[in-house]
């Protein structure tokens, strides 16, 4: 059977950073943030050429091991076949291994780019299949759901198939991220979690996660109790003591702060007027950054779309 035809034109894909868990929503809740990686992919006559600027420029592989390329390859297989050659240009702004969804962003960008350069790609790989494939590669759905859909997302698994819905976060919420200098691989942070948890802790998290949906969408004044977690943050403390200390310090000052994703970044869900003041609280070991909420999720943009610094 003949493989698919490919578009000659390059495509540009923009993918947002994401914060998963948000306290009690372990492996299910996610929030898309206004900090983006941009990727340009073009089908070429032969070979694989990768350019990387920004995060990971000195460390990422420039061959088939590159996560985005692996995601492109997996998607091309599903779409019916591989192109003869590929050129990939990455402008990376999302820090790696910090709990801001860099791996999900790379995976989603790769799959979306493969679909966009394949003639008839959207019919062969619809949005549900896209979520499913990205989740399969990443291993959990929370970051990929927020990356693909934007906004505040709730992801779950139905008979082993990833599903997600998007909700609109309250506009008054101003995320502030406190990013430490050193990364912590998600795999390491997941390795610290126990296989079972006390029933009372599971029950507490279920209640807070439900409350968080109301707090993030309509009643931000409830964010402090709504972001309490008993399932993952404290278990991960040995790998990120300073992050947990900062979360506790902010929370005791009344700021709804959580570990972002698998850490070690700390996310504060500030009220709009207080965000700049909160951003100054952390001290010199942290890069504090006030970010917008992303409401669109991953998008295919015109090639000449300007870059964004955030
Ligand atoms: N833009 C990228 N291009 C290629 N590989 C990437 C890119 N971003 C991340 N990666 C790969 O993913 C790894 C980081 O993934 P990891 O899951 O540990 O952290 P994260 O995704 O940044 O955080 P979290 O999953 O907690 O939000 C990097 O070390 C790198 O191997
Ligand atoms: N839910 C995941 C997010 C990591 O990206 C975790 O906490 O391990």
TrEMBL record:
Catalyzes the ATP-dependent phosphorylation of L-homoserine to L-homoserine phosphate. The keyword ATP-binding applies. Its main location: cytoplasm. It comes from the Bacteria. Pathway: Amino-acid biosynthesis; L-threonine biosynthesis; L-threonine from L-aspartate: step 4/5. Belongs to the GHMP kinase family. Homoserine kinase subfamily. It holds the Pfam family GHMP_kinases_N. It is found in: Cytoplasm. The keyword Lipid metabolism does not apply. GO terms for molecular function: ATP binding; homoserine kinase activity. Its EC number is 2.7.1.39. This is Homoserine kinase. It catalyses: L-homoserine + ATP = O-phospho-L-homoserine + ADP + H(+). NCBIfam families: thrB. Keywords: Amino-acid biosynthesis, ATP-binding, Cytoplasm, Kinase, Nucleotide-binding, Threonine biosynthesis, Transferase. One of its GO terms (cellular component) is cytoplasm. GO terms for biological process: threonine biosynthetic process. Residues 221-280 form the GHMP kinase C-terminal domain. ATP binds at residues 95-105. Residues 70-151 form the GHMP kinase N-terminal domain. It is an enzyme of class 2 (transferase).
């Amino acid at each position: 059977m003949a493989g698919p035809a490919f578009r000659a034109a390059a495509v540009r894909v923009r993918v947002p950073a994401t914060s998963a868990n948000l306290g009690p929503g372990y492996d299910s809740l996610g929030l898309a943030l206004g900090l983006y990686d941009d990727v340009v992919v073009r089908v070429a006559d032969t070979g694989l050429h990768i350019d990387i600027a920004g995060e990971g420029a000195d460390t990422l592989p420039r061959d088939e091991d590159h996560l985005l390329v692996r995601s492109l390859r997996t998607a091309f297989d599903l779409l019916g076949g591989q192109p003869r050659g590929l050129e990939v240009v990455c402008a990376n702004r999302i820090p790696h291994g910090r709990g801001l969804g860099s791996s999900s962003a790379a995976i989603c960008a790769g799959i979306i780019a493969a679909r966009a350069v394949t003639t008839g790609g959207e019919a062969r790989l619809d949005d549900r299949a896209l979520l499913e494939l990205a989740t399969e590669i990443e291993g959990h759905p929370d970051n990929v759901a927020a990356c693909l859909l934007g906004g505040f997302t709730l992801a779950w698994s139905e008979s082993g198939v990833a599903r997600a819905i998007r909700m609109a976060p309250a506009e008054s919420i101003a995320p502030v991220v406190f990013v430490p200098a050193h990364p912590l691989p998600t795999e390491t942070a997941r390795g610290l979690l126990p296989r079972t948890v006390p029933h009372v802790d599971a029950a507490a998290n279920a209640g807070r996660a439900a409350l968080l949906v109301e707090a993030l969408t309509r009643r931000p004044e409830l964010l402090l109790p709504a972001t309490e977690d008993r399932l993952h943050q404290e278990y991960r403390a040995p790998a990120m003591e300073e992050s947990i200390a900062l979360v506790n310090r902010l929370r005791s000052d009344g700021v709804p702060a959580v570990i972002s994703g698998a850490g070690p970044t700390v996310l504060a869900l500030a009220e709009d007027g207080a965000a700049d003041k909160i951003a100054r609280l952390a001290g010199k070991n942290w890069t504090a950054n006030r970010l917008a909420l992303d409401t669109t999720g991953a998008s295919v943009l015109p090639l000449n779309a300007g870059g964004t610094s955030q």
